[in-house]
Write a structure and sequence with these properties.
heterodimer, A: 334 residues, alpha/beta, Rossmann fold, 2 domains, eight-stranded mixed beta sheet, four-stranded antiparallel beta sheet, globular, B: 326 residues, 12 strands
């Protein structure tokens, strides 16, 4: 029986710029189950990182969370609304329950501290009385999990390669036994071989610790073979959510379908690959219609009228698959 | 005669941190680029692929060896010939934002080379030529884009503008250094299509530098692929033949590491990469013998001492002692 670990309900994040409001993350609802791997894909500016920051309460001014609830179900069976916590109460959950590896992770290590000091500092922020030897034993264990040698503990960040830093940060994020980890573009800027290696390590860690993982990326090919369920974001909204296999084989939103068809791969016939025409909308000047309509072939051909009001909700296209396209039955005829 | 040829080119830099040490970014590289062909250059970061591109456009000069344009050494060109070479070989950069002057409108930036090289008589003509070009590569209406500043455009649009800039001087070779790696996935293919079309329509040769084998295969379907490792070329072949039957063990590993989006192929994925270690050796202290031997699962004693030369194998070139047995 799958139990939810995180329920995100109607989360909206606004940024106020020059007296105008930009909704970077619009009414997002997702339920993430304990122990599963969820992928969130979307192009730059689609709101992936904002969503993760919203969940972790890391939104900085001029941004603010306009509405929504984030309910976290602890290992002990308690339910906490993370949005109602005060800053110091939330701090208790960060690292110990929810943790994140953010984009450009290579730059998050303090250049003037050795790797072991990062581990010590992190643990002592939560438990000032933690013994150095205990922390380092744990750190060594974690480093071997990510296949790094002990000597890394005594290194400064500049002595490590990009892939080693990324692995160090993954180990660091696990030091306080979290049960859900957000990985924002964990392999961007890394070479294919390093990328393969990091994904391989993450898969094994997930299995061993029974972690819940949330991958955020713009490149679906990286996570296609890793995740269980996939959410597709477009212009701040989730446009489709469901099991990864279904999204690949039977997408029910034209954007998902286009995205799956836009990636050049090594195996199949390349002549059928096609880009999605146009470009993502300006969030300050959204069309008064379905947000995808300017790029949608079915809107252009008149199959769908692109009624904005009807795209304010998600439709269940299959028992476990949700889509924002209300014309999905017409568009994706069996 | 090849359009552009690199003959035994080596490029050596002084190591920044450790005085007196040398970084050998390119070592004894030979490459011929024929008119109208597409060559994809692939490899991990630090393998020298960008240095190769910069030698082609004469940003870096070879420490040893020669770069030839239409059969003539770049250093022996007359002023007029060099000017023609500069127009004939163009580059598209990875970071489209950094490649455009933020203080100038697109028209100001793009009309300058046209006026400088007297390809147009005046600004009106430049406007006409650029508008035509913009419509052709899908920046409609052209006026809207020509009057804008770089920050007002999206990454995909800026990358199209860089392509237009390269095309505007009617070059015979375009060196594209990771042109789509910073562009959203949904727009990548359309840019690659534009380049393929320019290649067909005007017979422009392309050198497509990338670490992404998927896009390399897409653009160079009928072209060649060069695989680089630590400054050396380790494999050169027709791209489809190379991908179907990779010869060099490094290329095997590179192909195996490419992520496959389709979840149905999950089971088909191999559990382990054919590699002994995942980290690239440093360019400064490159290992002796075959540069790949510390990571190669097949390496024997000879690989540790003797550096393999490029030789013919199954219609392509490969630098490996053991390729027949693998």
């Amino acid at each position: 029986m799958t139990k939810p670990i995180l329920e995100i309900k109607n989360l909206s994040v606004d940024f106020v710029l020059h007296d105008r409001k930009l909704r970077a993350c619009d009414d997002v609802s997702l339920t993430i189950n304990r122990g599963e791997i969820v992928g969130i894909i979307g192009e730059s500016g689609s709101g992936k990182t904002t969503l993760a920051s919203g969940i972790l309460n890391l939104i900085k001014a001029p941004g603010r969370i306009a509405a929504g609830e984030v309910i976290y179900h602890t290992r002990e069976g308690k339910s906490v609304d993370l949005r109602k916590l005060k800053e110091d109460e939330f701090a208790k959950y960060r690292w110990t329950n929810l943790t994140s590896v953010f984009q450009a992770a290579q730059n998050v290590l303090n250049p003037s501290l050795r790797v072991k000091e990062h581990f010590l500092e992190t643990v002592r922020a939560h438990d000032p009385k933690a013994k150095e030897s205990d922390v380092l034993t744990k750190a060594r264990e974690l480093l071997s999990q990510v296949r790094l040698e002990e000597r890394v503990l005594d290194c400064y960040p500049h002595q490590l390669s990009g892939g080693m830093k990324q692995r160090t940060i993954i180990a660091l994020s696990l030091i306080l036994n979290p049960d859900i980890i957000f990985l924002d573009e964990p392999t961007t800027a890394l070479d294919v071989i390093t990328q393969w290696y990091i994904i391989d390590i993450l898969k094994k860690i997930q299995k061993e610790f029974g972690l819940t993982m949330v991958f955020l990326t713009h490149d679906v090919s990286i996570i296609g073979s890793v995740v269980d369920r996939l959410a597709v974001m477009y212009a701040g909204q989730v446009v489709e959510f469901g099991p990864v296999m279904d999204l690949f084989k039977r997408p029910t939103h034209p954007y998902t379908a286009g995205l799956m068809n836009a990636i050049p791969s090594l195996r199949d016939d390349v002549t059928h690959r096609k880009a999605i025409p146009g470009h993502p909308p300006d969030l300050m000047a959204l069309p008064d219609a379905c947000r995808f309509s300017p790029r949608c072939a079915h809107f252009a051909s008149g199959v769908c009228a692109g009624d904005r009001a009807k795209t304010d909700m998600l439709y269940a296209s299959r028992p476990e698959q949700l889509t924002r396209c209300y014309s999905w039955e017409k568009v994706f005829k069996p | 005669m090849s359009l552009m040829e690199l003959k035994d080119v080596s490029v050596t830099f002084d190591a920044e941190q450790r005085k007196g040490q040398k970084v050998r970014a390119l070592v004894g590289l030979n490459l011929k680029i024929e008119p109208g062909e597409i060559v994809a250059v692939v490899g991990e970061s630090g393998c020298g692929k960008t240095t190769l591109g910069k030698v082609l456009v004469d940003i870096y000069q070879p420490t040893e060896g020669q770069a030839l344009y239409n059969g003539k050494d770049l250093r022996s060109l007359t002023k007029e010939e060099y000017r023609k070479y500069r127009l004939g070989v163009q580059m598209i950069h990875q970071d489209s934002y950094a490649a455009l002057n933020p203080n100038r409108t697109i028209f100001q930036s793009l009309s300058l080379p046209l006026l400088q090289h007297k390809l147009v008589k005046n600004k009106d003509e430049a406007w006409g030529l650029l508008s035509e070009l913009f419509e052709e590569i899908g920046l409609n209406p052209a006026r809207l884009f020509l009057e804008k500043y770089p920050h007002q455009l999206s990454g995909g649009q800026r990358q199209r503008i860089l392509l237009a800039r390269a095309l505007s001087v009617r070059p015979s070779l375009i060196v594209a250094d990771e042109p789509v790696s910073m562009v959203d996935v949904s727009l990548r293919i359309s840019l690659l299509d534009l380049m393929a079309r320019a290649n067909k329509k005007y017979g422009i040769s392309f050198v497509y530098i990338t670490h992404d084998l998927g896009t390399a295969r897409y653009i160079a379907q009928h072209g060649r692929i060069a695989v680089m490792y630590l400054g050396r070329m380790v494999e050169l072949n027709q791209i489809q033949a190379a991908l179907d039957k990779p010869a060099h063990p490094y290329f095997h590993a590179l192909i195996a590491a490419v992520p496959e989006a389709d979840p149905t192929l999950r089971g088909g994925k191999i559990a382990q990469l054919p590699l002994k270690s995942f980290d690239m050796p440093s360019v400064i202290n490159a290992p002796p013998g075959c540069k790949f031997h510390p990571r190669c699962p097949y390496a024997n004693e000879r690989c540790g001492t003797e550096e393999p030369k490029l030789r013919e194998f199954r219609g392509g070139l490969v630098a490996c002692h053991l390729v027949e047995t693998i």
